Amino acid sequence: MDGHEIELKAGLSAGDARRILRTLKADYGPGQQPEHLRSIYFDTPARHLKAHGIALRIRREGGRFIQTVKAGRTGVGGFQQVREFDNAVTGFKPRIAAITDRSMRETIENVTQATILAPQFETRVRRARWLVCEPHGEIEIALDQGWFDAAGTRAPILELEMELKGGSPEALFDLADRLLGDTHADLSVSSKATRGYALSAGEDILARPFAGKPKAQPGDKAAGAAFESILKSLAEAIAANLHATMASVDPEGPHQLRVALRRFRSALRLFADILDRKLARDLNATARDIGRSVSALRDSDVLTELVLGTAVAAADPLLPEALHEHREALRTAARSALRDGGATRFVLRLQRLVVLGGWQRKSARLAEPLSRFSARRLAERWKKIAEMGDRFSVLDEKDRHDFRKLLKEYRYMNDIIEVNKIINQDIKIIKKLLGALGALNDLSVLSAWKPGLASPDAEERLAGVRAALLTSSRHRGDLSLGRACRHWAELRLGAEG
Description:
The chain folds into two domains: 2-200, Hypothetical Protein Pfu-838710-001, CATH 2.40.320.10; 223-496, CHAD domain (Alpha solenoid), CATH 1.40.20.10. By secondary structure, it is α+β, with helices and mostly antiparallel strands. The protein has an eight-stranded antiparallel beta barrel, surrounded by five helices. Helix 6 (223-247) packs antiparallel against helix 7 (252-270), helix 7 (252-270) packs antiparallel against helix 8 (277-293) and helix 14 packs antiparallel against helix 15 (421-448). It contains 16 helices and eight strands.
């Protein structure tokens, strides 16, 4: 079959896969007879097809061999649209001449230049399948369990695929919300081709944090179009970092999740004039709550490493183990809070808004150039910052924390827009100021940190290390406060100039 494939896929844990399987059987019956599928992906030795965004595989389905070409993949996270061309072949031997679409056939011929296509990697999966009719469309559901095999390296496959056979993509999101909303599903999962190529190149395909920011939008771009781009970018970042938090112990996962959520909330405020008010309030509240779910874990990540970096703690046979146990308990609690707080459902909601829209309200300002559209919000934020900054020397700890949050929001708002050299210089000073304020905040958090370790002895030793750190850091705190004052004066002088 030639045409467009529209699908939504999610990576699963073993526990979530079992729960989803039970739900599918309860709702739709046993489904079709499970199939054992073997697929081999082909390319030139220099991987010209991959370089052009083309995947070519041959799959054995029972006694048949189906060659499939996929190209032009677009989407957000696990939701993907791709051009797909299928034809029967004999065995695991590619036949470019058999591709029925002339344009695609000629493209591949030009790309490969008659180079022999060789196997790159393969997948073997056991697929359970259901064909279901939902209110907005017909969907094929596939639950795949198996592995990749690339140059002798294996990696597991456990994922749910929902392919739209007819109707609206709305049907995919409705079904995904019902099946995946209360799980730890990976909604950032890439195609099997992408993962297979990465694995065959020796790359790690496990969960990893995403430490990037959205691409700055041109000032003359329409505000509505700019928000669409920012929403897509942040939906992907939130999905990737949520998965990293759920599936790995990398401390960057919770950190980058909070950063992405803060960027998202800053975008909601910047674009408030064109967003549906109720939707924006709901999204902002949920993003805030998700961020709070990992706050204690993030603090523990930072402070545990700080404490363990001391010579006293490193030589202590009891304290490191107690701190690691405490951090793992916080990680378990954070993951439960994310599940219970609907974090996966929130990501699905963002992806749905990217694909289907519905975030905007009727406003002439949708077409307004971004630079003019954003000017008032930025001016309002700067006014609040200036009012607090001019009283910086008398701000208490709480007010300094609020001042830091305002500066972060202002910085994230400016990151959205391509700005001139003067603004760029201000942002550089703001980053320095935030660094100084962050150092002061770390001391404040350390002072209040009383994790309540399981062992009284370990708790007593931690109290001693913490007191020593605070004593030794007092001078650094004074220096940070002085730097913050100087950076603010520099920033204020530049703004007045």
